[in-house]
């Protein structure tokens, strides 16, 4: 087997990532034939088949997945090398990618602004996405850091901080249910109920309890925007959200209250700050991680 050419792997990586040779060619600003040629030469050099062609495009073979794994690790090490060299010269430049659920925006916005003022040459990229997408981005190295609600156990994930964030019923303080505590799951269907969609950790917890109790919730609104769910509750509906989403910023939601639901699973949910297990963070990302852990601990104890 000959020397591995990272430049050829780049063409293969883009083709698999984009799903087709033509899309990779557009991204790399080259002719499709150039992409095909580089992949073919790489297959010859490694003596393996790297891609399978399907009607919907291409995907990596088992051998191809190993090459992709190598290339992703190579890119991470390259990023670390450049950052460490810059640190030796007293420079602070680079990019940090963060993925988190919408419910954490108000908690971290100030922190990110503070970080940017201290390290103006570090560009932050923040993705707001569902719990499933946060996990995917972190495990596939698309994000350095993740902030996620009650993730399923994953051997590829390392949790740096777990915070108790119970799932509660959110409603107007003058709603009839506000006089009842704790509230049974079955009582929710008698009201205008709004829930997140199934890609959210919130809905996955609800599904677990539905399976345990045999009670199936029938929301009148499904929405992947937490601000909309809160507005729905302010106007007489009810929703289920982590308690902290209104308690940490009570001045923004003076008419909303959070009440417990009568099932232990709802009281055991947690938020986690995560990275991929085994990923070595550069100085900048590691600094932001420690700032994030400190800030979230502080908010949780206030």
TrEMBL record:
The keyword Iron-sulfur does not apply. One of its GO terms (molecular function) is DNA binding. The keyword Transcription applies. GO terms for cellular component: cytosol. PROSITE patterns: HTH_LYSR (PS50931). Coiled coil: none annotated. Pfam families: HTH_1, LysR_substrate. Gene3D superfamilies: 3.40.190.290, Winged helix-like DNA-binding domain superfamily/Winged helix DNA-binding domain. Belongs to the LysR transcriptional regulatory family. This is LysR family transcriptional regulator. It comes from Acinetobacter soli.
